[in-house]
Amino acid sequence: PMTTAYYEIRVAGTLPPGALLDFDRLNAAVETVVHGPLPDQAALSGLLARLEASGAQIMEVRRLRRAEQESGK
């Protein structure tokens, strides 16, 4: 069965406006931390590829534990 996992992705610099299109449940903070649910590894790979293609430098990718998902941290 498919289980949605929550990720936090830190990137250097700012994201262009279209970088998160099609990922409507993801949020980006001012410091450019992208977080939210992704349905599977393919979606994670696709998002990382899109961010890199947008010129963003991926600094960190973390899979969040349930407590972090619920608290928003």
Describe the structure in brief:
With 73 residues, the chain is an alpha+beta fold. It has helices at 41-53, 66-71; strands at 5-12, 27-28, 33-38, 57-63.
Structural write-up:
By secondary structure, the chain is α+β, with helices and mostly antiparallel strands. Helix content is 26%, strand content 32%. The chain has a four-stranded antiparallel beta sheet with strand order 2-3-1-4, covered by helices on one side. The mean pLDDT is 83.
* Arrangement of strands in the largest sheet: 2-3-1-4
Structural class: alpha+beta
Helix content: 25-40%
Approximately what portion of the residues adopt beta-strand conformation? 25-35%
List low-pLDDT spans: none
Q: Taking Cα atoms only, what radius of gyration do you get, to the nearest Å?
A: 12 Å
User: Could you give a short account of the major beta sheet?
Assistant: 4 strands, antiparallel
> What is the CA-CA span between the terminal residues?
26 Å
- Helical stretch tally: 2
The succession of helices and strands, N to C, reads EEEHEH
Mean of all residue-level pLDDT scores: 83
Strand runs, count: 4
Shape: globular
Question: Layout of helices and strands, plus pairs?
Answer:
Layout (H helix, E strand, L loop, with lengths): L4 E8 L14 E2 L4 E6 L2 H13 L3 E7 L2 H6 L2
